[in-house]
Amino acid sequence: MIKGGNCFVPSVPLRIAVGGGLDAMALLLTESGAVRGDGDVVFHGAPVHPAGAVRLLGTDRGAAWLEVGLGVVEEQIDRVLVVGSTRSGAMRDVAGLSVEAFAPDGTSVVRYDVTDGAGETAMVLAELYRRAGGWKFRAVGQGYANGLAGLAADHGVGAVPSGVGVTVTKQDLPPAPAYVPPPAPVYVPPPAPAYVPPPAPAYMPAPPPAPVPAVAQPAPAPVAAAWWTYGPVFEPRILTGRDNDVITVDGLPPGPVVVELAVKGDGYTGLTTLNWRNKEKDNLVNSTEDDFFGRVLATVPKNGTLRMKLEAEGPWKVLVSPLAAARPLTEEEFESRGPDVMLHTAGVADLVIHYRGDDNLIVNTYELEGHDDHTELPEDENVVNEIGKRRETVPLPEGPLVVQFEMADGPWRASLKRLQPHGG
Hints:
single chain, 424 residues, mainly beta, Lipoxygenase-1, six-stranded antiparallel beta sheet, five-stranded antiparallel beta sheet, 28 strands
């Protein structure tokens, strides 16, 4: 399985091997994404969950082992995270970094080999989560450079559990509780309902409200300032489909455009532009978020045809709009989720960002003043590149300025303060 992939697993006791000599932990989370208390953290110091469904079995053959009885996990628990942490060094130094789940008869159910470990010292390797009456396994591979402390804080754990790094053996554990299989047979997921795309709306300067997620908001009308001359305005193009596809939009003016992507479903979502040789060029989207929604920047080549490779699981909608149709930043707080493209069209101001995601927050700006080539954006300036929840305040020069939330896999809010009139 590759990073972001997911599949259904049988609702039976699974034995999970964390390879690479890491210390293993499990976090049991509610729908809020947090533990209910310290009892929902299974580690060397507390190797058995109070309800008995999750147990740390110790180490064997170079792997740390967990057992998760999916059929008896409490109803309040929505997800079980499988976590690995190093005793020394970083994930990039770990050989054989992997996670694998086995059925009671020893058959391998699913395996994920982590190939992109970097400077992190703790990582959510995988998660087991409820879906459609059964359980699915997702390959996560989300690392934490600030180690278990950062991972614990993101999931409501008061402090790093004491005892992490202490070796536990099987004789140290109490006997496993008797497993009572559920009366229902092994869950077989029903076929996905047929997706009927909505009819394309008549053109309006503002894109329609995004179908997912709930926090998504429609973009406003194109910028009305008389001095806005950067890039042509054209009628937005809407395309719909399902699952993996190659998207082609002809007859566009060359230059930067805003691509809005909405996918209903879980699993990996990727969007990459293709060059004239049909080779991948610019990676626009790389996300494991369910029901992905976001707006990204793409550049239409001189032949006027934008081609993109889409990787998705489920129905999707793509809206290609002119740069001038991006939402302007104002002093009114705007709430969104995922990547986005916004415009700063007034005078000097401070940009205030509240980010509530767990992964990277990357924000770039493109200063358009004096840039006359409308077929390409000027060189970008990276103003934010941080990991995890935070509040940032960034000084902005006088517009026109493109503000790109390049990576933001989580909810965020943005607004301007100390805004000055435009002097142009």
